[in-house]
Amino acid sequence: MRHLLSTRDLDRTTAVRILDIAEDMADVAQRAVPKLPTLRGKTVANLFFEDSTRTRLSFEAAAKRLSAEVITFSAKGSSVSKGESLKDTAQTIAAMGMDAVVLRHSASGAAATLAGSGWIDAAVVNAGDGTHEHPTQGLLDAYSIRKRLHGAASRGRDLDGVRVTIVGDIVHSRVARSNVWLLTTLGAEVSLVAPATLLPGAIDSWPVTASHDLDAAIAAKPDALMMLRVQAERMTSGFFPNEREYAREWGLSAERFARLDADTMVLHPGPMNRGLEISSAAADSARSVVLDQVTNGVSIRMAVLYLVLSGNDGTDA
Amino acid sequence: MAVRLVLQQADIQRALTRISHEILESNRGSDDLVLLGIPTRGVMLAERIAGIIGSLEQRDIPVGALDVTMYRDDLDRHPTRTPRPTRIPESGIDGRTVVLVDDVLYSGRTIRAALDAIGDLGRPRAVRLAALVDRGHRELPIRADFVGKNLPSAAAERVNVRLAEIDGEDAVEIDGGTEHPGGAA
């Protein structure tokens, strides 16, 4: 694998392979020495042009567990605030001899631009680009669902027939997009629930069903319910009247959570707005996989860094 | 190109039986013995040897799988390898005699990687090496303690081990070389 830019590029075999390698990486975390020498001598640059805590820390932990050197760059307090372009920043980083660039950027398509630009030779891993994609989040969500359903027997399995409902701010959500492409590629049936203003205009061309009624979605007993964060920072105009109305119609309140099927797991990519899209009763319950998602994120990112940084010709054996 | 059959099913069975006896002899019994196969075919061979020793000793011999992909030093020289699961027996490896089992011993680099992997998993009392075929061409100071068959080969040849568990039959054959590779013995 040369780059990881989008889950749309992944076929089912490749996706299952990444999840399976992540299983092996998760086993490593349980050992006395939770570290592998695999990427000794490689350098990974974390380029974060947009705020992030968990994704940045997760990539950093993943690279370090594989013995890579990590250099982290945040746009705040850097030359970007002096007006440096993505190209100049990338070339500066490349001149320092980086093997991989983990890029988070507010512009959709930034990672693809960097990978296809010829500015740098390094492998590019998309860690979130605008409202486009966040592929490692999609992968870790798929991993978390598979792990919760199949436990130790997860290896080699896809998500055939698994019913996943994604709720909330779909239009601004790169997490939703990465999940829609990946989960459907893996065979899952994905449905979306959102206010009409927060569904993308091109929803008809997506391989999903869409509705506005969370109570009906809960009554349909999905295998997994993914609550998305309300992204106040991307809401430039009134997408819904106010937070209380959003919470009442589309939030997983304690009362709704009580109606949820006992086998339905609850996911949230974090950071959570407690009391808005998710209640503490749901977030802290045994059916919540929120903390598993964080743990699994490190395993997934180890698998991805291994795949883009090993091999001599970008092809796979 | 000629394909030469070197070991048949009965030969492999005899070699594994002899290796099993040799392991028991050198370990003075089966106490504290752990067999770790190197995927893919080493795992099957380790399970077969554990079965033979188990029936000789009337006890279960701990057997597992040790994947060494993430410890290799040649990851940049080949297409990306997919790691296989590592399974360590519940008894662990600390203070035990670990016998590594692989199908073909060649450059020795896989075993070097395996020794590093073992070091991250615990501290065995001793590590031994069993290989069904030793084809020479070592690049590191590593040798096997138990060998099924020494098989001088040319570097250009391929040694294929096929096992009934995944290949449908037991056989070892040499592929692609001439009958008598010069100077390879």
TrEMBL record, chain A:
Annotated residues for binding of carbamoyl phosphate: R54, T55, R104, H134, Q137, G270, P271
Keyword Transferase: yes
A single MF term (Gene Ontology): amino acid binding
PROSITE patterns for this protein: CARBAMOYLTRANSFERASE
Domain Aspartate/ornithine carbamoyltransferase Asp/Orn-binding, first and last residues per copy: 160-307
Any GO CC annotation of this UniProt entry: cytosol
Catalytic activity reported: carbamoyl phosphate + L-aspartate = N-carbamoyl-L-aspartate + phosphate + H(+)
Top EC class for this record: transferase
Binding site for L-aspartate: K82, R174, R229
Signal peptide segment: none
Residues of the Aspartate/ornithine carbamoyltransferase carbamoyl-P binding domain: 2-146
EC assignment: 2.1.3.2
Pathway per the UniProt entry: Pyrimidine metabolism; UMP biosynthesis via de novo pathway; (S)-dihydroorotate from bicarbonate: step 2/3
Self-association state and partner proteins as the record states: Heterododecamer (2C3:3R2) of six catalytic PyrB chains organized as two trimers (C3), and six regulatory PyrI chains organized as three dimers (R2).
Annotated family: Belongs to the aspartate/ornithine carbamoyltransferase superfamily. ATCase family.
PANTHER family named among the record's database cross-references: ASPARTATE CARBAMOYLTRANSFERASE, ORNITHINE CARBAMOYLTRANSFERASE, MITOCHONDRIAL
Purpose: Catalyzes the condensation of carbamoyl phosphate and aspartate to form carbamoyl aspartate and inorganic phosphate, the committed step in the de novo pyrimidine nucleotide biosynthesis pathway.
Name recorded for this polypeptide: Aspartate carbamoyltransferase
Automatic annotation (TrEMBL), chain B:
InterPro entries xrefs: PRTase-like, PRTase_dom, PyrR, PyrR_bifunctional
HAMAP family named in the record: PyrR
Keyword terms, alphabetized: Glycosyltransferase, Transcription, Transcription regulation, Transferase
Function of the protein: Also displays a weak uracil phosphoribosyltransferase activity which is not physiologically significant.
EC number: 2.4.2.9
Domain Phosphoribosyltransferase intervals: 9-147
Principal EC category: transferase
MF annotations from Gene Ontology: uracil phosphoribosyltransferase activity
Family named by the database record: Belongs to the purine/pyrimidine phosphoribosyltransferase family. PyrR subfamily.
Swiss-Prot/TrEMBL catalytic activity: UMP + diphosphate = 5-phospho-alpha-D-ribose 1-diphosphate + uracil
Keyword Aminoacyl-tRNA synthetase (UniProt): no
GO annotation, biological process: regulation of DNA-templated transcription
Motif (PRPP-binding): 98-110
The protein's name: Bifunctional protein PyrR
Gene: pyrR
Pfam families: Pribosyltran (PF00156)
Listed NCBIfam families: PRK05205.1-3, PRK05205.1-5
